[in-house]
Amino acid sequence: MKKVSKITLWVLFAISIVLTVLYFMNTKGPNLDAWTYTYLNWAYIMVGLAILLIILLPILTFRQRTVKVKSLLIMLVIAIVLIGGAYLIAPGSPITLATGVVKEGPSVKLTDTALYLTYFLLAIAAISIIGGSVYNALKKN
After folding, report:
1. Does the pLDDT value for residue 96 go beyond 90?
2. Rounded Cα distance, 126 and 124, in Å
């Protein structure tokens, strides 16, 4: 199983590199829109695959790991609370772009949610790094 995942990783990595090189080679050509959509679709596929694997792998490897159901449920609840909290405080107010186009609706709300979730996770990561360093420094003394 380990070999299959490593080969899959390298194949996806190679496809990504090839698409990136082809995209940048064709940025000055008439097919820029087609290459941009191809590149974006590949990104959507990768994000979808990542989300699918995040959901499926803990379920498929549950018996092989020593993770308890209680800790798994706690992590799931924390993730739901963070995403739900970000969604609730996201304003979703209309945005006027530089071209004068006004964007509004659910896509703006989801974008705001993603931004707030990024801020939350960045703050948690920074606090964890600083807190872990302080804890390790105090533990040694």
Report:
1. no
2. 6
User: What residues contact 12, with CB distance under 8 A and at least 6 apart?
Assistant: 46
Query: Distance between terminal CA atoms of the chain?
Result: 44
- The answer to whether 113 and 83 have CB atoms below 8 angstroms apart is yes
Average pLDDT over residues 45-60: 83
Half-sphere exposure of 74 (CA within 13 A, CB side): 5
Which residues have C-beta within 8 Å of that of residue 103, sequence separation ≥ 6? Answer: 94, 95, 96, 97
Cα 127 to Cα 89: distance, rounded to the nearest angstrom: 21
pLDDT at residue 139 tops 80: yes
Mean pLDDT within 24-52: 85
- How far is Cα 122 from Cα 88, in angstroms, rounded to an integer? 19
Please tell me the predicted confidence (pLDDT) of residue 14: 95
DSSP H helical segments within the chain, as ranges? 2-25, 32-60, 69-89, 106-140
